[in-house]
Amino acid sequence: MARTSSSSGEVEEEKGKEEEKKQLKQNQKQKKEALGWIEWLRGWVYLIYEMLFQRIIASHLQNPLPLPPANDLSCIVTGSTSGIGREIARQLAEAGAHVVMAVRNTKAAHELIQKWQTEWSGIGLPLNIEVMELDLLSLDSVARFAEAWNARMGPLHVLINNAGIFSIGEPQKFSKDKYEAHMQVNHLAPALLSILLLPSLLKGSPSRIINLNSIMHYVGFVDVEDMNVVSGKRKYTSLVGYSSSKLAQVMFSSVLHKRLPAEATISVLCVSPGIVQTNVARDLPKIVQAAYHLIPYFIFNAQEGSRSALFAATDPQVPEYCELLKADEWPVCAFLSHDCRPTNPSEEAHNIETSYQVWEKTLEMIGLPSDAVERLLQGEEVKCRYGA
User: Fold this and answer.
1) 234: pLDDT strictly greater than 60
2) Is position 3 within any domain?
């Protein structure tokens, strides 16, 4: 009788395990496939509030933002031939920093430098600014850029991932790497650049990685199994592409922030420039463009939109704040609002499980091993699928 009882118990235990496995599979099948309507509605309310009141909220800031001397800084600014990036590059250079304009259109960048040097003549020393080619629609280009910069064996103090696209109303496009264009330009390429430049950032520590994000990430959702939005589960629109890429950037930045040891003194943060009138408007339908230009009071110009990134790049208290979040094991990286004050990214950005899935999937997509960060910080060579 004892043996029978024991056997029955084992059978029951096995059945229990099978039920647990079935339940786990069922839960996986029922994984979140979109934002809940409350989260979605909350995101849009926040967006509207930001547009209507951003100028009032940021009224305490001067324009342009006064910067401390930056003579000892080497800074890379992507997408710096227009809009916010142009303002960031110019103002950092005028503050004394060595600025590298990492751009696709090198001719336009050289013309800008010539113009700035002429305007600056007689005010101070010539601007220390140069141009390097970088095409974010090519991960080969990103890897080659990082290799060329690291080969200098010099320090990098600030990396500003400013370049981005929002192809409003346009059909879905893919890069030659076969990734959805918004996802590659706004997230994958900056992620690859940030990791490959870690050796130079370590030489320049305390250093900073600053990602120009957007409040549009509040209405974004990332399906890790469908980063290119091709499965048909979600209908593709430019808004889906853009908001998803910006949310992925916050999630990836949060994990990178955690994986960088405190002794590396490399800060990772995202900043929102606010709602800014930039070249994005040229992609809008004409009727929307008309409305866009009718509300200039509510929308920042590029100089106003550059303030949060410039603050993140130069304020001495930013690294302390980033380390405080790390010490408190905060689930997300530092996020600065358009008024240069800390704020919380979206509720979805706090999803730790999805953030780690985004991290792993991103490394796979950009051709880096899972231990790339640790190995690069230890001075080891890491092979990337792209570049040389």
Assistant:
1) yes
2) no
* Residues forming the active site: 242
Domain that holds residue 149: 35-377
Four-point Cα dihedral 31, 36, 39, 45, nearest 10: 150
Domain count, the chain: 1
387, part of any domain: no
For the chain, the helix, strand and coil percentages under 3-state DSSP, each to the nearest 5? 50, 10, 35
Non-local CB neighbours of 44 within 8 Å, separated by 6+ positions: 218, 219
DSSP three-state, residue 175: coil
Per residue in 49-58, pLDDT tens?
888 899 999 9
- Residue 382 belongs to some domain of the structure: no
Determine the 3-state secondary structure of 266 from DSSP. strand
Task: Dump pLDDT digits (tens) for 148-165.
Answer: 999 999 999 999 999 999
Residue 341: both structure tokens together: 């004050």
Q: Which residues contact 133 (CB under 8 A, 6 or more apart)?
A: 102, 103, 104, 106, 141, 145
Lowest mean pLDDT among 27-36, 75-84, 91-100: 27-36
CATH number assigned to the domain comprising residue 285: 3.40.50.720
User: Which helix (H) or strand (E) is 193 found in, with range?
Assistant: helix 189-196
Residue type, 257: H
197 is a domain residue: yes
Distance of alpha carbon 218 from the chain centroid: 14
Tell me how many degrees the CA angle 365-369-370 measures, rounded to the nearest 5.
Answer: 95
Structure tokens belonging to residue 22? 């079935």
User: Is there a contact between 69 and 95 (Cβ–Cβ < 8 Å)?
Assistant: yes
Asked if residues 186 and 249 have their Cβ atoms less than 8 Å apart, the reply is: yes
314 near 282, Cβ under 8 Å? no
